[in-house]
């Protein structure tokens, strides 16, 4: 549930970003870009990883799921996926993007005994 709430909040802010912002940040403000990159890396590789690892230890995630791989595929640098060639926020609703990038992916790894309001 914590991972869902973290990414729900992140999506609320990402929808205000323009793809050019991230590219200009990297080009013109490399130190700020490094801070942003560090934040994203810590969020996914530490916070989200630890939460999913704890969920797996509590048998809320299937035993055969590789948490590190899940984080790298689905949670690390979501901004790159959303803004790569087009701003997906301009093509789809925030709710649809959130469901497809977070909820549906988590549904694929959770165990059958786990439930919460987002998974119903």
Number of helices: 7
> Helix-strand pattern, N to C?
HHHHHHH
Largest sheet: none
Rg (C-alpha, Å)? 15 Å
Structural class: mainly alpha
Ranges where pLDDT stays below 50 over 5 or more residues in a row are none
Rounded to the nearest angstrom, the distance between the terminal CA atoms is 13 Å
β-strand percent reads under 5%
The mean pLDDT is: 84
Could you state the oligomeric state of the chains shown?
single chain
Q: Which descriptor suits the 3D outline? A: globular
Please provide the count of β strands.
0
| Helical residue percent band | over 70%
Give the secondary structure arrangement, pairings included.
Elements: H1 2-14, H2 19-28, H3 30-57, H4 67-75, H5 78-83, H6 88-91, H7 94-107
Helix pairs in contact: 1-7, 2-3, 3-4
């Amino acid at each position: 549930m914590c991972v869902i709430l973290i990414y729900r909040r992140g999506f609320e802010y990402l929808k205000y970003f323009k793809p050019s912002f991230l590219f200009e940040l990297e080009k013109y403000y490399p130190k700020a870009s490094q801070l942003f990159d560090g934040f994203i890396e810590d969020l996914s590789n530490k916070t989200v990883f630890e939460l999913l690892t704890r969920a797996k230890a509590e048998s809320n995630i299937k035993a055969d799921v590789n948490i590190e791989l899940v984080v790298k595929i689905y949670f690390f640098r979501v901004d790159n996926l959303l803004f790569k060639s087009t701003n997906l926020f301009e093509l789809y609703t925030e709710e649809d993007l959130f469901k497809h990038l977070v909820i549906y992916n988590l549904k694929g790894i959770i165990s059958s005994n786990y439930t919460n309001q987002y998974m119903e």
